[in-house]
């Protein structure tokens, strides 16, 4: 079980990124923070990792099954420069609560004025750590924009990650060029997902 990371010092030496196999060459050439610029993410545009290998492997399986014709996903393994991490501007969410939910809303929708909400659309924070929202977060955002929820607490309940229990499952996201320089690619596990089986082949 992955413990809660209370401070930057708790971030481990190794982090993982689950993706499809076709994305690996691009990552090898260098992490592109803006390759999915049109996609709105929980903590804003950036490169997302986890210290939980199983979580990264599950995401790799998903990407391999649905986004890549080879039916192969990949878990990219990174070494973390702990000394460089200490220089970053960071934001840590240590529980699923309204502050975390408002931060996600501010990054995923334009309904909040920038000056009034904590957000990371301007990459103010080099690194952000916290829980994952539920996999149906896109639908929940649309429902919020349409006034479906009576309160922010109702929104929190809807996006609480029962599928991704915190802190075992979590996200560590990198949002600036200097932040991504803390990561050095060390290897890749290729995940074969053909015929609904999952096995590491490399």
Quick overview of this protein structure:
This protein is α+β, with helices and mostly antiparallel strands and 202 residues long.
Task: Identify the notable features of this structure and list them briefly.
single chain; 202 residues; alpha+beta; Phosphoenolpyruvate Carboxykinase, domain 3; four-stranded antiparallel beta sheet; 7 helices; globular
What does this protein look like?
- This protein has one domain (about 15-195): Phosphoenolpyruvate Carboxykinase, domain 3.
- Helix content is about 30%, strand content about 20%.
- It has seven helices and eight strands, in the order βαβαβαβαβααβαββ.
- A hairpin with a 6-residue loop joins strand 7 and strand 8 (about 200).
- It is globular, with a radius of gyration of 17 Å.
- The protein starts with 13 loop residues before the first strand and ends with a strand.
